[in-house]
Amino acid sequence: MKKKNKTVLITGPTSGIGLELTHLFAQDNINLILASRNKKLLLKIQNDILKKYNIIVNVYPVDLSKSGSARKLYNFCIRKKIIVDYLVNNAGFGKYGLFTQTSLNTELDMIHLNITSLTELTKLFGLKMKKRGFGKILNIASTASFQPGPFMSVYSATKNYVLSFSEAIAEEFRGSGVSVTTLCPGPTISGFQKRAGFKDDAKMYNSLAIVDSKQVAQFGYNKMMSNHRLVIFGLINRLSILIVKFLPSSFKTYLVKKVYNYYH
Ligand SMILES: NC(=O)c1ccc[n+]([C@@H]2O[C@H](COP(=O)([O-])OP(=O)(O)OC[C@H]3O[C@@H](n4cnc5c(N)ncnc54)[C@H](OP(=O)(O)O)[C@@H]3O)[C@@H](O)[C@H]2O)c1
After folding, report:
1. Which letter does DSSP use for residue 109 in this model?
2. pLDDT exceeds cutoff 70 at 2
C-alpha cells in the first residue's frame, strides 16, 4: 500500500524564508497548505510547485494580522479534512522607527500577526498533533528576540515572546511526539527590509552577518526535522548573542540602538 504523504501548513510562503521552506517541503513530497495575503502570488506559487512536484497544494489567502483570521484558516483545514503534520509559523514583519513616530495601527497588526496568530495556530494544531502523538512545529523568532531593540521596539518584543513561548511549550510537549523548534535568523535578505522601512542602500546589506533566505530555510528545515529546540543561524549571530548575554542590560540596549541606527 502506498504511504500517505504528510502535510505542512506554512504561513508567509510567498517570499523570503517562507518561500524557500515551501520548496524544501515540496521536494520531500510533503503536501502543502500555503497561507498569506497575496492571492495572486499564492496561486502562482501553487502553479509552479504543481508543475515540478507530484503533491497536493492548497492555498488560503488570509491576512493573519486580523482578528479571527487564524481560526478561519484552522476551520478551512478541518472542512477539507486535512491532517496537519507540520506547522510553520513564519509570517511576520517589523517596522523601523522611533516608537513616538511609528504607526500604532501598524504595530497592533504586527503584534496580532507575530504573536496572536502564531499562538492561536500553535494551540489549535498543537492540540490535534498531541492527540495523534505526532507533529512538528517551526516558529520563526529572530536574533532580535534576545535583547530589547530601540528603533525596532515592538518587533523585538514580539520576537522575544515567540522565543519564550516556543521554548516553554517545547518542554510541555516533551515525550508527546510533538516537537517545537524555534529558529532565530539574523539579518537575511528577503522582503523583510523593505517592509520594515530600511533604505535601499542601507549599510546592513554590506554586513558580514547578512545571508540569503535559502541558507536560513535549509538550516531551519534540517533542525525542525531532527527535533532541535532552539537554533540560531550563523556563527556571527551565535557569538553576538553569547557576548550580549554578559553585558549589563542598559549598555546592551544602547549598543543595539547604535547598531540599528548605523545599519538603517
Ligand atoms: N529577513 C530578516 O532579516 C529576518 C531576521 C530574523 C527573523 N525574520 C523573520 O522571518 C520570518 C519571515 O520573514 P522574511 O524575512 O522571509 O520576510 P518576507 O520576505 O517579507 O516574507 C514575509 C512573509 O509573510 C507574509 N505576511 C506578511 N504579512 C502577513 C499577514 N498580515 N498575513 C499573512 N501573511 C503575511 C508575506 O506574504 P504576503 O505579503 O503575501 O502576505 C510573506 O510571505 C518573519 O517572521 C520575520 O520576522 C526575518
Report:
1. H
2. no
Evaluate whether residue 2 is within a structural domain.
no
Distance CA 17, CA 40 (A): 19
pLDDT tens-digit series, residues 113-139: 999 999 999 999 999 999 999 999 999
> Ligand 1 centre and the CA of 187: distance in Å?
13
What is the 91 CA–ligand 1 centroid distance (Å)?
A: 4
Handedness of CA 111, 220, 218, 128 (dihedral sign): negative
Residue 1 lies in a domain: no
Number of domains in the chain: 1
| CA dihedral over 254, 258, 259, 264, signed as positive or negative | positive
Pocket test for ligand 1, best of 93, 107, 140 (most atoms within 8 A of CB): 93
User: CATH code at 110?
Assistant: 3.40.50.720
Which residue range is the domain that position 186 belongs to?
Answer: 7-263
CA of 215 to the centre of ligand 1 (A): 16
- Grid coordinates representing 199 are 533604505
Atom from ligand 1 closest to the CA of residue 109:
31
Nearest atom in ligand 1 to the alpha carbon of residue 113 is 31
Q: What is the pLDDT of residues 140-187, one digit of tens each?
A: 999 999 999 999 999 999 999 999 999 999 999 999 999 999 999 999
